[in-house]
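Worked problem 6 (solution included).
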Amino acid sequence: MPNEQQTVVITGASSGFGRDIAERFAAAGWRVFATIRDPRTKHAQAAAEIEAKGIRVVDLEVTDQASVDRAAAEILASGPVDVLVNNAGASFTGPVEAFTPEAMQKQFDVNVFGPMRVSRAFLPFMRDRRSGLVVYVSSVAGRFAIPFLGVYSSSKWALEALAEVSSYELSPFGVDVAIVEPGAFGTNISSSRTAPDDAQRVKAYGEILPLAGNVVKALATAAATRDTREVADAIFALAEQPRGTRPLRTPVPGDKDIVQFNALIAPLQRQSVLDFNVGELLPKTPV
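Solution. The predicted structure is:
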């Protein structure tokens, strides 16, 4: 990156990964816009603490197009954005059948449509400048299917597909896309999971429902040994890398299973792009 001050925008920055990311970039001298839902009411304390560190807080609700548009206009009025981190997310946990389509739509609205709304607000300016990095915070669950995480995982699978395709389509414009795949960490998303909304369907799964507790316990056990700042460090490292050299996927931590899975899939995916005669959209050197 050049020596001039760079600008980063982070969604869902009131706590967890988002707050860590904002503070990591600010500590390195970046101009940081931390977007938060309801920063003057529900998240007023967090907003005040973040602003005390010289970080600018902007009101943004990723499920509201008007809110996204207002926030983007406010941020872009201050100058170009170099890095956009789509971090805001939510987790719906339970048997897939026990979620109504309306509930599933809410999950996708936060985890899929939200990042797409925000990206669309900033991408035209990045394309015009022929420069920029868009980071999508996915999950290891966006690569593996885990019982009782089907609704959440499916939203992250969708996000991964959209992000990867965007990485090809944006490469001719000098804009990089990176997918960060955290494992289990002790963030607000893990302590505020949304349960199924169809009580009758939940009851029908009574005999196996206790197994959902095993999944939650396994996640909590893994999270207990990890520092959420690992994710912030990984995203900052991506931002500091030269354009065109950033890996498409970065698991955090880099556990063997997910690293091997990604390594096995990458050449198959690359070949599929070649088979459709759009190989010019691939990076010259696979990363």
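Discussion: The mean pLDDT is 95.
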